[in-house]
Amino acid sequence: MAMQQEFHDLKGKWALILGASSGFGAAAALALAKSGVNICGVHLDRKSTMGMVEEVVAGIKSAGAKSVFFNVNASDPEKRKEIIAAMKAETPSGFHVLLHSLAFGALKPLFSEDALSQAQLEMTLDVMAHSLVYWTQDLVKAGMLSRGGRVFAMTSTGSQRVWTSYGAVSAAKASLESYIRQMSLELAPLGITANAICAGVTDTPALRKIPGHEKMIELASAKNPYKRLTTPQDVAQTIVALSLPQTYWLTGNVLGVDGGEMSVD
Prior knowledge:
Blueprint: H1 2-6, E1 14-18, H2 23-34, E2 38-43, H3 50-62, E3 67-71, H4 77-90, E4 95-100, H5 118-141, E5 145-155, H6 167-187, E6 193-199, H7 213-223, H8 232-242, E7 254-257
Parallel strand pairs: 1-2, 1-4, 2-3, 4-5, 5-6, 6-7
Helix pairs in contact: 2-3, 2-8, 4-5, 5-6
């Protein structure tokens, strides 16, 4: 009952979720909405996958929260400015939560006949790492990140470990974690925390694009102390808890949300 009452601290606030249509972003949108948080979702979907977006929007509505969704390229600077301007009228007090959950990058080896090109490498870093900085910069300039706010970025153990064709994404995740540490320092005077969430192996659309993901699932399922994969909902509940006022002193971290998976050899 006490924890339920604490969630009232989130009621009426807004979250901006980059990558809100599936995986971690969609699960976080629904979990936050159930805690009373309104959702601004940015996603990039074609007609064939718009059904997922509609399900998320319907779930937010059934939870009694508001939602505004934008189907655009989150790394487009003009679209970013348009969204921030549009949301300033909707939520003049700004966002309480910014979640960066963009999973769009080139999955190719560094050395092969079909190796990563310069354009692919730069695109992956731009979308999956640099865009966190650009969005946060513009939100701060516009006064759209509220004092006491939370910045979260989804990382993975790929920031430190190698996997076939994961080189560009690995570099992006390492950069993302570095940016989070720097942001924790520079956003502290504004009362805003910044943390990276490192989920265990999770069966998401993004994971299924990685060559050899079947082996990743098999290994993680076997070694996880709970004998199952991490789910998007596991991560979403953590994000809700970390959005509460009581976690104001937790910043600059890479937080493992994996059921102890990474502790087991």
